[in-house]
Write a structure and sequence with these properties.
241 residues; alpha+beta; Arc Repressor Mutant, subunit A; His-Me finger endonuclease fold; two-stranded antiparallel ribbon; 5 strands; 43% helix
Length: 241
């Protein structure tokens, strides 16, 4: 698809995005008019195209998804600017970047820990995220700290994949459903992406690593996984009796 002439105001807006991944997508669309899932993978190494597109949308740049053919003639997805939204001043804006003050407030409240895996990280490795995805709740949920959480990069990627494949993300879009999901409330959830699963992420750090090593050795001896061993220990614990 050839490049199209973009309104100056919109062009000025998209060029304010400086983060590497969304900027690469934006620059490619400016130059070529669109970017395909094949190009995202082959040219930029982005194997998960929806994540790259989401990065652009979260910077307030509207995209629309179309279908085209890749270099081998197979159907593939393509992204281009959604100018019908871009030219509507009331709609452009999207999810805003969070200030350092917001992050500092969350660190003061929760410590420098990921809300999901509960491991401690240097503040620069933690990301501020909406408990309920922006794509579901939009601006209906404020940026009050009670609606935000700190997550590490690994858990954020897991959350993104799970959310983007959840019917509540793609079709239903009920904020209350998200609020009872593991990814919004790891300590008190009723489902994971609408599937009846209960999950606990446990990490061992510092002096605790020795405990994990002992568990791992015992699991090898018994021929089970560490997860299975931990479950059997919990089942036999007087706490549950």
């Amino acid at each position: 698809m050839p490049a199209i002439e973009l309104p100056k105001a919109f062009l000025d807006r998209v060029r304010t995005v400086t983060d590497k991944r969304p900027k690469a997508v934006i620059d490619h669309i400016i130059k070529h008019g669109s970017i395909t899932t094949e190009e995202l993978k082959e040219l930029y190494g982005y194997n998960h195209a929806p994540r790259a597109a989401r990065d652009v949308r979260e910077n307030g740049i509207p995209l629309k998804t179309t279908m085209t053919k890749d270099s081998k003639g197979r159907r593939c997805g393509a992204y281009t600017f959604d100018l019908t939204v871009a030219l509507d001043g009331e709609k452009i804006g999207g999810r805003k970047a969070f200030s350092k003050n917001v992050k500092d407030t969350l660190i003061q409240r929760d410590g420098s820990r990921c809300a999901v895996c509960r491991l401690e990280y240097s503040a620069r490795y933690l990301q501020v995220d909406h408990c309920v995805p922006y794509e579901v709740a939009g601006e209906s949920l404020s940026d009050d700290p009670d609606q935000l959480m700190l997550v590490c990069g690994s858990c954020n990627r897991g959350k993104s994949w799970s959310c983007e494949h959840c019917p509540n993300w793609t079709e239903i879009k009920k904020a209350k459903t998200c609020q009872t999901c593991y990814w919004a409330s790891p300590q008190d959830h009723q489902h994971i992406a609408l599937v009846q699963i209960r999950r606990v992420d446990i990490g061992w750090e510092g002096d605790e690593v020795e405990v994990y090593d002992k568990l791992r050795q015992k699991s090898k001896t018994q021929g089970v996984s560490v997860q299975e061993l931990v479950k059997s220990i919990i089942k036999g614990s007087p706490v549950l009796k």
